[in-house]
Known about the structure:
- By secondary structure, chain A is an alpha+beta fold.
- Chain A has a domain at 21-56.
- Chain A is built from one helix and two strands.
- Chain A has one helix at residues 23-55, and strands at residues 4-8, 14-19.
- Chain B is mainly α.
- Chain B has a single domain, classed as Up-down Bundle (Fumarate Reductase Cytochrome B subunit).
- Chain B has helices spanning 18-39, 50-73, 84-98, 113-137, 154-182, 188-196, 201-207; strands spanning 12-14, 198-200.
- Chain B has a two-stranded antiparallel sheet.
- In chain B, helix 1 (18-39) packs antiparallel against helix 2 (50-73).
Amino acid sequence: MEILRYKTDAWGQRVLEGASWDLVWLFVGGAIVFIVFHAIYTHRKLKLMRQDDADE
Amino acid sequence: MNNNVGVHPEARVPRHRLADRLFHWLMAASMLMLLATGFLPIFGIKFAWVDPHWIAGVILTLLVLFHVIRVILILDFSHIWIRWREFIDSFRSTTREALGGRRQKRHIGKYSVGQKVFHHGVAIVVLAAIVTGLVMMVGIDGPFWERNPLFMSEGMRGIVFVVHGFTGLFSIMMIMVHIYFAIRPEKLYMTRSMLRGWISQNEYDDHHDPARWSSTEG
């Protein structure tokens, strides 16, 4: 996976063109991983809080 | 914790004024327009995307200017500023909980530390997108200006395009996470308040600390 895109200019030199669009899926995947981990963590936390409340 | 003894539980606590709600939703619409016009052509959906893209960018720029002016003149900057003690307390209690320690319900100010961190992340990304976007606009023809392709060197143009591209990539991630938090059951009352402007006294008592955010402040 490339991070940057390059192109060849009028003089035949390799120049920077922009961010690689392959990274879109990395960022989408990163967001999904964060959401899944947070959802699991919060679900577990809320469950344990309810148990703590019931024990008191 | 509750200093509102005697206040009706269904009383309304003002949270977001109309101007701030309009700013939020117009910013959301312009961000979605920018992402759609910026990324759909990359995935093969071809259309004349340049004009709607820069117009949405100019609208976003004006909205951010409007927000900055409101922050300076009207809004209370201390609500969104992260204090060191607050950050450390939040970090410690989250770490303690994650490691199996006792879980405690925390009362926050107007915004949680997580919301403040998110706000500052969005601020950095959007400001970088605006600055690079305005520079990129010099390279296209517009209604009031002619393009100047020699405005900057090829190397500098590449750097500007890289930064602008990464702001788009980070925006996708941030919008996904923002929508996730907006629809979480325990955060829905905040999302509702971005529509109707207020939360109930019960919601205020359950989640917020009057010492950090007074129910009369808005």
